[in-house]
Amino acid sequence: MLPATRNGLLLIGVLFHLVYLLSIFDIYFRSPLVHGMTPHRAALTPPAKRLVLFVADGLRADKIYEPYHNETSGKTEELAPFLLNKLRTEASWGVSHTRVPTESRPGHVAAIAGFYEDVSAVTKGWKMNPVEFDSVFNESRHTWSFGSPDILPMFAHGASDRSRVDTYMYTSEFEDFSGNGDRLDTWVFDEAEKFFARATAGSALHTQMHEDQVVFFFHLLGIDTNGHGFKPYSQEYLGNIRHVDRGIRRLVDHFEEFYGNDGQTAFVFTADHGMNDRGAHGDGHPDNTRTPLIAWGAGVAKPAPLAAGQTAPGHDGFSQPWGLGSYERKDVNQADIAPLMTSLIGLNYPLNSVGTLPLAYLDTSRKYRAHSALANALQVLEQYRVKHDQKQHTEMFFKPYAPMHQPTNMPEHMLARIQQAISAEKFDDAEAECLQLIALCLEGLRYFQRYDWLLLRSIVSAGYLGWIAYSLLYIFGEYILPDSSPRRSQRSGTIAVLGLVVFAAFSAMFYRQGSPAMYYAYAAFPVYFWAGVLQQVPLVRQIAASYTQLAVRWRPAAFVGVYVVILEALVYAYFDRRVYSAAFALLALVWPLAVSPRFRREHTALLGLWSGVCLLTSVFTLLPVERNDHLGLVIVGGALITLSGVAAWHYSAAFTLPPPGAGVKEARQAVALDRLMLLVQTLLVGVATVLGPLTSKETERRGHLPRLYQLSCWTVLVAATVLPFVHGSRRGRGGAHDQHYLYRL
Questions:
Q1: d(CA 108, CA 531)
Q2: Fewer Cβ within 10 Å of end Cβ, the chain: N or C?
Q3: What is the four-CA torsion angle of 479, 480, 481, 482, rounded to 10 degrees?
Q4: Which residues are within 8 A (CB) of 346 and not within 5 positions of it... i.e. 6 or more apart?
Q5: Distance CA 507, CA 524 (A)
Q6: Which among 258, 280, 260 has a CA at the least distance from the CA of 206?
Q7: CB under 8 Å to 598, separation ≥6 — which residues?
Q8: Is the alpha carbon torsion for 583, 589, 593, 597 positive or negative?
C-alpha cells in the first residue's frame, strides 16, 4: 500500500492535509443552533411598552466610564456626561463581557439574539447568516433600525416577517476610514430626527409607534471607525464618545417629547466589542471583551442609596479609577442583554438565546421577576430537550447528560418546585431554582455540542500519527535501508481485508447517525495508513535491528525526545510568550558550550556577541503585547538595522564566499552581486525608516497621503519582496539555480 514513488507520497500527503484541514470546521465550527422549540414569555403585563437600544460599535468600557484629563484645558472631565448622569440617578450599569471573536456581527448577535456567534458564520466572513436564528427584533411587534449596512440587514433577513423590521442605512461607500468617523453617527441622529418628523399625529407611522412591544435600534459605527483609523486613545475616538453622548441626549429628549413623558420607555446603551490600543479587535484581550452597559427607564432598577464612606458591590481594580464606587456595578455576560430587553417589554424569549436574565437590573413586582425567570428557564430547557432528542435519535450508543438525570435535577421535578414556590409567593426561592435550572441546561447544551468531539479528535489524531508512521517507513525503505530484503508481510492481503472491514464499520456508524460526508474521509485515512504500516512489519523489524547495531544508541532517541520537547514548547508558547524568552536564554548558553575548546579560544568575541544578542532578544517577549504607537522606537530600530547593515556590507568582502568550483572571474562577479544585494536591502530599510515619520505626520494631519509617499512605500514593499527571488534565479555552474540566498533568508 506504500506509494512506489516520491511523487505518490507527496500526492497522498497533500490530499490528506487538505482533507484534515476541513476537520477543524466539523469539530469546532458546527452550528450550535437548533430549531423546533416552543416560545415562552412571562404571561403578565410588562413594565415598558417600547425599547430603545443604542449600540456604540467598538466602545471600550473604560473609555466611557473613566474621567478624562484634558491636556489642553488642564481639567478632568467626563466624556459622556449625559449617560453618566443617568448612571448616577436612574440607571443600572456594569460591564458586559463579550466572547471571542470580538467582531461586530458576533457582538450584535449575542446582545440582540442572546446566543454567542454561530461559529459556522466564519464561512460567511462574519457577515450574513449561514443558519437562520431568532432575535428580539423578530419577536417584537415592530422594529425600526438605523445605522450600518454591515449590521442591519442580517436581522431584517432573519425575521420571520420581513415587514416587521424596517432598516434605514447609509451606503457602504460612506464608511470611509480615512476621515473622521463621527459623520456616520451624525447621519444616524439626523435620520432619526427626520423619522420623528414624519410621524405626525394621525399618520400610520404615528399609530404604529404607539403600539406596545416595539423596538428602536440605533447602530453607531463612528467610534469603531475612528478607533481603527486613529487608535482608541486619539482625540477622534474620545471626541466621538462626546458626540455620541450628545446625540443620545437629543434622541432621548425626542422620545420623551413624542410619547409625552409617559414613563413607558426603556433605554439600553451598550457596545458590541471593545478595542485594543493598536486599534484592532477580534481576540480575547480584556480591552476587546469588556464593554459598557447602561440601562434606564421603565422597569429598570435605580441606584440604591449608600451610607457615606461605603463602597457599592461589584467593584474591583478595573473600575476603581472611575470614581463610581458609590454605585453598584452589575456585570453581565453579553448574551444576558437579550433576555433583559425581552423581559422589559414582555416579548417571547428569542428561541436560540442562552442568556440568563439579569434580575438585578429589573425594578418590577417580585411576581413578574419570578415569572420572567421561569420563562427564561423554560426557553433554555426547550433547546436542551430538542438537542437531547436529536442526539438520542441519531446516536448508536447514546449517553445522556448525566447531571440532568439525577433525581433532584430532573427538569420535571425542578419545574414543579418552581411552580410551587411561585404559588406560595416564595419568589426568591423560585428565582434561585430557575437560575439553577438554566445553568444545568446550558451545561447540557455544551455537552451535546461537544458530543462528537472525542470520536472526531481521536480519528484525526490516529490519522496524523498514521501519516507520520506511513511516511517514515517510506523514507526508511527508499533512502536509508535501500536493500532487497523482503519488507511486506505475508499477511498483507489479510491486513487489507481487515482494513476494509474497519472502514465499513465506521461507514455504517456514520450512515446510521446521519453524519456529514467528510466523516467518511476522516476515517479512511487512518485505516489506510495503519493498514500500510502493518503490511510493512518486516521493514519495521529491519529498522529495529539497525538501531540495535548502532554504537551509540541513545543519540537518536535523545534527538527525537528533544525534537518533541521543542515542538511542545512552541505549542505552549501560543499561550505564554515567556517560553520564547527561555528559549533565547538557552541559545545564549548552548552554542558557546557546544563548540570545541579551540573554537571558543579563537572566537571569544563572536561567542560573547552571540550570547549578548540572544539575551537582549529574550527581553522582547517579556514586554507587553499591547503598546501605544511609539514612532521614536521605530526610528531607532530602523536606524540600528541600517547601520548594522552598512557595517556588514563594509566588511562583507572578508566573509562572502563564491559558489564552489567557480572560476576567478565568476567568483569575483558572484561576490560583488552578493555584496550589492546586501547593500540594496540595507538601503531599503533606511528608506522605510525615513518614510515612517513622514507618513505618520501626514496621517496626523488627517489628510490624504501624498502620491509620492504612496509610490515610495509600495516600491519598498515590492522591491524587498522580489529581490531575494531575483537573486535566486541566477544560474551557477552546471545550470543549477543559486538558492543559497533564499535559504539564508
A1: 49
A2: C
A3: 20
A4: 41, 42, 44, 45, 46, 212, 213
A5: 9
A6: 258
A7: none
A8: positive
User: In this predicted structure, what is the pLDDT of residue 399?
Assistant: 94
**pLDDT value at residue 486:** 67
Q: Quick count: other Cβ atoms within 10 Å of Cβ 659?
A: 16
- Show the low-confidence residues of the chain (pLDDT under 70): 1-4, 117-131, 158-160, 177-178, 482, 484-487, 659-661, 700-703, 726-745
**CA atoms within 13 A of residue 208's CA, in its CB half-sphere:** 18
Q: How far apart are the C-alpha atoms of 265 and 656, rounded to whole Å?
A: 78
CA–chain centroid gap for 475, Å, is 39
pLDDT for the residue numbered 729: 54
Q: Tell me how crowded residue 404 is: count the other CB atoms within 10 A of its CB.
A: 20
Count CB-CB contacts under 10 A for residue 133: 23
Q: What is the pLDDT of residues 666-698, one digit of tens each?
A: 778 878 888 888 899 899 999 999 998 888 877
Calpha distance 136→17 (Å, rounded): 42
Task: Read off the pTM.
Answer: 0.84
Length of the chain (residues): 745
Handedness of CA 352, 358, 364, 370 (dihedral sign): positive
Q: Which residue, among 121, 145, 125, has the nearest Cα to 133 in the 3D structure?
A: 121
722: exposed, middle or buried (Cβ count in 10 Å: 0-12, 13-18, 19+): exposed
Q: CA 341, CA 345: separation in Å to the nearest integer?
A: 7
